Amino acid sequence: MDKNIEQKIKLLQDKYDAIDQDLETHLDGLLYSKPMRYWDFIQTDALLNLQVQRTVFPDEMIFLIYHQINELIFKMILWEMQQISHHENLTAKFFSSRLGRISRYFDMLSTSFDVMGEGMEVAQYMKFRDTLTPASGFQSAQYRMIEICATDLINLIDIRFRATIDTNTPYEHAFDNMYWQAAGKNHKTGEKSYLLKQFEDKYKGELVRLMKEYNEINLYDKYKSLPKEVKEDIGLINAMRHFDHTVNVNWVMHHYDAACKYLLSEGEDTEATGGSDWQKYMHPKYQKRIFFPELWSKEELDNWGLTNLTSYKILS
Fold first, then answer.
1. How many CB atoms lie within 10 A of CB 186?
2. Helices (DSSP H) in 86-193: which residue ranges?
3. CA distances from 168 to 7, 172, 209 (A)
4. Fold classified for 50-302
5. CA distance to 65, 237, 294, 303, per residue, from 298 (Å)
6. 239 vs 98: CA distance, rounded Å
7. Which residue has the higher pLDDT, 116 or 199?
8. Which of 57, 113, 161, 285 has the fewest CB atoms nearer than 10 Å to its CB?
9. Do 152 and 292 meet the contact criterion of CB atoms below 8 Å apart?
10. Numbered ranges of CATH 1.20.58.480 in the chain
């Protein structure tokens, strides 16, 4: 027998002995199992049967698939963020490389908005969108998870109420004052929209649990806990700035511009499907969502969301 084969069998024996398993049984399983096929690994049939239209308009299928792709990419982003937050011996190289992956995913999301901006007929969208009410992209729980995993909760609080929130604030109270609550709550009356009530019924418990878990291991906290010489690594700082700007300005503004094409297409301000004041909710200049504020100058912070989409300085 080839020595390499013998060595691998020995390694397999050690592997299964360590978990009190019989190697011969597992080899029998390998002998009788079918070879891996692309469609089995990807689960192609299941994936391609997840698209169910509610109307007869062809462009609804584009809208549906596009948002499912977004959710898959959000899952990839969260996968990378978890690796950073739960890494015990974090280095600038590992941190930067994973942030680079995340930023590439968001860069792809940003440029993909042409699929929405140029890929659907306005007339079709304005008809099939009525069947989606009151559903809204606001209800993407994975996007909320990305924000929670990225930064300290104070940076996600509605800018009007940040002064009333501190580290002693209960998580549930902080949750009720997140910036995106502005899209689903009348803060004068405190009344929550149906959109927000449904979202909270399904996800509030999970999101509050995540807030607690990432309270001291979000990306911003992981950065602040690094040794001084690692924190000053220019490559890491630029990676964090790119991620911050890509998520909170580039991606948001591409989304905003796509929404403007459709919701302002008839010469008047059309409500979003969830009924929100979508322009003030979406545009970064209003909420100033910034994940890593200490990595930006005062001028950059003051002009957040007001500059050109790609206008931020690469440090050297």
1. 10
2. 92-111, 114-117, 122-128, 141-150, 171-176
3. 58, 12, 16
4. Methane Monooxygenase Hydroxylase; Chain G, domain 1 (1.20.58)
5. 40, 16, 9, 9
6. 9
7. 199
8. 285
9. no
10. 50-302
